[in-house]
Amino acid sequence: MANHKIAILRGDGIGPEITNAAIGVLDAVASRFDHTFEYSFPLIGGEAIDREGAPLPQSTIDECLKSDAVLLGAVGGPKWDNLAGHLRPEKGLLGIRSAMGLYANVRPAVLYDELKGASPLKNDILKNGVDITVVRELTGGIYFGERGYKDGPLGRVAYDTEAYSIKEVERVAHIAFQIAQGRKKKVTSVDKANVLESSRLWRAAVERVAKDYKDVELVNMYVDNCAMQLVKNPAQFDVILTSNMFGDILSDEAAMLTGSIGLLPSSSLGDGKRGLYEPIHGSAPDIAGTDTANPIATILAAAMMLSTSFGLYDETACIENAVRKVLAKGLRTPDIAGFGGRKVGCEKMGEEIAHAVLNLK
What we know:
Blueprint: E1 3-11, H1 15-33, E2 36-40, H2 45-52, H3 58-66, E3 69-74, H4 90-99, E4 104-110, E5 131-137, E6 147-152, E7 155-160, H5 166-181, E8 186-191, H6 197-210, E9 217-222, H7 223-232, E10 239-242, H8 244-257, E11 265-269, E12 276-279, H9 296-308, H10 313-328, E13 331-332, E14 342-343, H11 346-359
Parallel strand pairs: 1-2, 1-3, 3-12, 5-10, 8-9, 8-10, 13-14
Antiparallel strand pairs: 4-5, 4-11, 6-7, 11-12
Helix pairs in contact: 1-9, 1-11, 5-6, 7-8, 9-10, 10-11
């Protein structure tokens, strides 16, 4: 029996709907495995702006740091698009990652057999499946380097600086190798070491870390080749380890191989067990309140939370098998309804997965 405290950041748009579905599934897990999950609901994003005047109130930070893990819905929407940058809902997400010390983003991309028709790739390319985890460095690189404007010989110049320290690379590399040890024991480290000095440091640091994981194969690959290989032969990849900007791009490419971003979860991790778990999609304000969102990514994010933060591996497998069972049963939310099966809403999909958790043999 386990007792865990979970902060639920519902957020904006479809956030409340998809987190409600995930809570229903977590409650089913608690019932089946005799656990207790205690939930709190701090504010973030637009909801926090409306009620507290800031996208990330201090009370939210305090509550998340008191919790064993954090489950996030989504933030943002057109209602807050005209606010100053420091007041935008997205600042809440960046802020909570920083406050929790999270520097590695982990994104699995799995293609379900029942949804192969949703992938843009041909069947002969998909014959060996798609099961990739992208580990992206989250708090360094060009997104956080020095930036600004200056005058140049051809006029006004804007610049952004890519910079990495050895420690930043090594700590995210350890996470990638540890994940690979529980999978197919292969890490593909993606860089641009033929051009960028920061990539040369990246490659050297990763190769040093690899010496601590003798059971894991390391392959170095240039980012342009990786982008091509993801489309040409995705089955060659197990864990992809890469920098902030490259990971931002490649993880979205990997996501689209599965046919719908509504199916894909992610986690943001640091040095401890506490992590932040969320779907990779946005707040989708255009469908908020219509019961048409796909809750599967958020439900699978909750499953990642159970294994990564709580060490509940059987419970994670139960949720993943429940999702497969419901998809095999033919139930589809609108985003995947064009690929066979019966269309259901967000609430019904969550209920069906929770029911499967309780009744799996």
